[in-house]
Specification:
Elements lengths: L9 H37 E4 L4 H13 L3 H13 E3 L14 H7 L5 E4 L2 E3 L1 H28 L5 H43 L2 H8 L14 H13 L5 E2 H11 L13 H8 L2 E8 L4 E8 L4
Parallel strand pairs: 2-4
Antiparallel strand pairs: 1-3, 5-7, 6-7
Length: about 300
């Protein structure tokens, strides 16, 4: 009687090994994609600037900008230029020619926020890290584009060698991903700390209102002066603004800006102490009472 039980053929054993190669390759690619996605998320929030009204769109634009970039471009053009920096190098960027968005905002009396999260390294450590990351890029390209050139997976020996190689590659990709995640956590902790500081009264007083910790006021940059300038634009008549009209406008549009915040009793005292405005008093013919008018001083 003939033995009819199926027997494994050489081809079936090769197929099993090839399937394992594909599974290992898939695992490597998933880890690389996770690495790239995390890096893009970090880069989107690592450098933000703008007014309160535009900073969200800046983040969206930044996220869109890096969304379609390859790992090589992310590393060379962004990550190694903006996030990881050599501590011996001046990281300040040169402003482009012409009036920047920051200058325009300041000229318009708007608060302008700038956030930049970086990881500074000593020159030797930075160079070592840079070369390691560039090797990661090269390894990713090698796995994606040249695996079959390097290993003949139609042969058992080639498939076994490819499996061992992909195991080593995954270990490398995974180690880089875990390190990047540590950096991301550090960046998020720094961002949370910055956010908590921004919510404090001291931050608002200093950066928004122009009130120094010792109680002195940076009058040209103060919130109350900026608010008065806006009221001036809204209420001016023949180049001068009636203080009573400005006060009424401020109560509606800048209710948080009040004289007592700047250690002043009256709005007229704010105008005098700031030294940013010309003041004149005129008699109102209808009431026969004095009226205070003001206008911004000409810039020297």
């Amino acid at each position: 009687m003939l033995d009819t039980e199926p027997t494994s053929s050489p081809d079936s054993s090769i197929t099993v090994l090839q399937d394992e190669v594909q599974r290992k390759l898939g695992g490597c690619m998933l880890r690389v994609q996770q690495y790239e996605r995390l890096m893009k998320a970090m880069l989107a929030g690592a450098a933000l600037e703008g007014t309160p009204a535009t900073i969200e769109s800046t983040f969206t634009g930044r996220a869109t900008e890096v969304s379609d970039k390859s790992l090589g471009i992310l590393l060379q053009n962004y990550f190694l230029e903006e996030f990881l920096v050599d501590s011996s190098m001046n990281s300040n960027q040169v402003e482009p020619a012409g009036m920047s968005a920051e200058s325009q905002a300041i000229a318009a009396g708007l608060p302008y926020l700038k956030f930049r999260f970086q990881m500074q390294m000593e020159p030797e450590h930075f160079e070592q890290t840079k070369q390691t990351l560039l090797k990661l890029r090269d390894l990713r390209n090698e796995v994606v584009h040249h695996l079959l050139d390097r290993f003949d997976i139609d042969k058992e020996s080639g498939s076994l060698a490819a499996i061992a190689y992909l195991d080593a590659c995954y270990a490398t990709f995974n180690n880089h991903y875990l390190q990047l995640r540590e950096w991301a956590v550090s960046m998020e902790n720094a961002r949370a700390l910055a956010a908590s500081i921004i919510k404090t009264q001291m931050f608002e007083d200093f950066f928004v209102s122009g009130i120094n910790p010792d109680g002195t006021v940076d009058w040209p940059a103060s919130g109350v002066v900026q608010a008065l300038r806006e009221a001036e634009v809204a209420c001016a008549k023949d180049g001068w603004t009636l203080l009573d009209s400005a006060i009424a406008w401020l109560r509606i549009n800048h209710s948080n800006q009040i004289p007592v915040k700047y250690q002043s009793r009256t709005w007229k005292q704010v105008l005098k102490r700031s030294k940013q405005f010309e003041i004149r008093v005129a008699i109102d013919p209808a009431s026969n009472c004095g009226q205070t008018w003001f206008r911004s001083r000409a810039v020297a």
